[in-house]
Amino acid sequence: MIRGLILALQFLTRLPVNIPIDFDKPNLRRSMFFFPFVGMLVGFIAFAVYYVFSYINREVAAVFSLLSLIIITGGLHLDGVSDTADGFFSNKNKEEMLEIMQDSHVGAFGVIALIIILLLKYVLISNMGENILHIMVFSLGNSRLCQAHKVFAKRSARPDGMGNMFALSKPMPYILTGSAIYLSIMAMVNIKYLITFIITFLFSELISLYSYKKIDGITGDVLGATAEISEVVSMISFLGVMKWI
């Protein structure tokens, strides 16, 4: 399991964990157990950065917190957002969409999607108030859990893609066990927080449905886009739950 944790950290973050781990099926499936917990770690680091700069003002703190998210993840999932937007909104057929998503160049739709995601995150982070620790930690955890769920529950549109490599490792038992532990922790902190996961999960399912319609499955780029969009949806859900429930 330690190898799985190290692999999850290496895959989902750019934290300096320079320990060589075999990229084989046993390690891949074990790594899926840790996806939500690595998300929580990333969220905590972003909160810590916010806290450090909050003595200046919350807008500056929000900028640096957002910047820390980009640096820690290496922009991996933001790349998925831009590629997915360029492909899905190109109005091409499935094969051409997949080719566009593999292209390293960023098109107009990709740029627009990135601007919207980053702007939304900035506004949301700057308005989280005293609940920012829980919101950041569990929003990142929610998004990575939704991402992990797609790996074993959804069909791959690209058999040779990264997402399919994780799926072929048959990670379902590890994902379900990690999910149960993660959701139990969330419920112990505040039972109302489970509502935010349900909302985030349902929205991620809509992303899957749209991806199936466009390319008859999901890809690594769609998984990345799911992580980023789910973060935003979860943050919005937290703010709504804290205000109205």
Q: Describe the biggest sheet?
A: none
Q: From the helix content, strand content and strand pairing, which structural class follows?
A: mainly alpha
Unreliable runs: none
Rg measurement, Å? 17 Å
Q: Characterize the overall form.
A: globular
Total number of helices: 12
Helix content: over 70%
Distance between the termini: 38 Å
User: What does the average pLDDT come to?
Assistant: 90
Order of helices and strands: HHHHHHHHHHHH
Percent strand equals under 5%
What is the number of E strands?
A: 0
Give a nutshell description of this structure.
The chain has helices at residues 2-12, 25-33, 35-53, 58-73, 76-88, 94-102, 108-126, 132-153, 162-168, 172-189, 193-215, 220-244. It is mainly α.
Secondary-structure blueprint:
Elements lengths: L1 H11 L12 H9 L1 H19 L4 H16 L2 H13 L5 H9 L5 H19 L5 H22 L8 H7 L3 H18 L3 H23 L4 H25 L1
Task: Outline the structure in words.
- The protein is mostly helical and 245 residues long.
- It has helices at 2-12, 25-33, 35-53, 58-73, 76-88, 94-102, 108-126, 132-153, 162-168, 172-189, 193-215, 220-244.
- It is globular and about 50 Å long.
- The N and C termini lie far apart (38 Å).
